[in-house]
User: What shape does this take?
Amino acid sequence: MHPEGPERPGRVQHHGPACRFGVKEQRELSVRQNREVTNLRGELSEVRIGESCGIFAVYGSPDAARLTYLALFALQHRGQESAGIVVSDGEKIRSRKGLGLLGEVVTPADFGSLPGHLAAGHVRYSTTGSNKPQNIQPLVLEYSRGLFAVAHNGNLVNAKELRQKCEARGSIFQTSTDSEIVVHLLARPENLGLECPLARCLAELRGAYSFVFMTRDSVIAARDPHGFRPLAMGRLGDAVVFASETCAFDLIGATYERDVEPGEIVRVTASGMESQRIDNADGARVSHCIFEHVYFARPDSVVFGETVHDVRVRLGRRLATDSPAEADVVIPVPDSGRSGALGYARQSSIPLERGFIRNHYVGRTFIMPAEDPRGESVEIKLNAVRNVVSEKRIVVVDDSIIRGTTSRRRFQLLRDAGAREIHVRIGAPPCRFPCFYGIDFPSKGELIAASRSVEDIRAFLGVDSLGYQTVEGLVSAVAHPDDYCAACFTGDYPEPVTENVGKLALENPALGSD
Assistant: This one.
């Protein structure tokens, strides 16, 4: 029982930035929220599709805050809207959270005020709930069993239904994210008497989730029965660590041990580590998100048991076999096209060159969800190398095309630099269907391939030829093709969607979204 506040079964109290920010801080947050994406700082790889988040947790290190800070830097590519770290010394939970990049929210000077041996961290791209202070994770909420911190990667497809049921029973929600629902389920009187209520509560969730939870004296990791989103487990000396990607382990010197299994809950306490299954998890179709390999994950990460770079090289090789082109050079679109371009060049024996140079000091064009700044900032992010492309026949390899507007402007850069022919090859099949499991294109209207043929897209892009990966070629690049979700390409959804799961579906219109 937390020493502050009475026991109130069935009620959840919110501990978050809305309680801490004064006028000055609110003004600063407002400035951050409204600035153009071109003002974002940091040397970060190109992103054009929003993914839900990056999460990290550690138990058993006296350096927990610093480790979490470093790990989140390695995961910054997964979300740039907000960042947060919560730390516990076994008695008190302390936090630093805010809108913006991790380095704008937390600095090494904060470590001294964040003592503790267990911590959880989060970098966010919003796929449910708008980008406002109360939605910053890790959420820290209080119910009758004490404080409970939640960091979530994924998207629930029955969030609205569960929220309405909780509200009908008296729950008062403080955020518009689907992540808060878990704590309200835990606070139900019928769950309070269970030895491990989390297994039952998570069984009520449908959709994609990789969670790390933290109490005053424990860290818990959990993954949905389909295993949509990655969640790795590792060791650093006596400490146990969890992360969305293994690149976070590399930065802090931890050793990757295994993935948290689909449908598994791993709890770490002073007594050790224990594993259990989510209720009714057995029998679910394993459905890893193939887009982690295509685009989201860093190439140096091990995701779903395979090194991302190796998968992308195989995708490039298959693309060269299935969609060859007569050309003088192969160039990637930085950065996510690099591994695929390497595979294409090796298979085709066409020289690999750097035809685009990226300005590292301009923020990521597509990680922020606002539409207008994207189109305005493209040309200042990339520049064509004239001596490489002028009078050349070029194969340009990219990972995917979603809306097409950015790609068209990039290919025009090559035309302006004198390219004679432009042959575009895409490492993924055409994205024709929305994703409801944590990728920020939840409607067909945002997908150019949903309404246009390949030839129409080629004409829109202004290139000489356009070749996509086939679905067969895509899944051939991974070791266990039957264990992947490719619904955004095929429309075959492993978890049915029956309600509106748009980004703002849980917003209260009377309160607004700011």
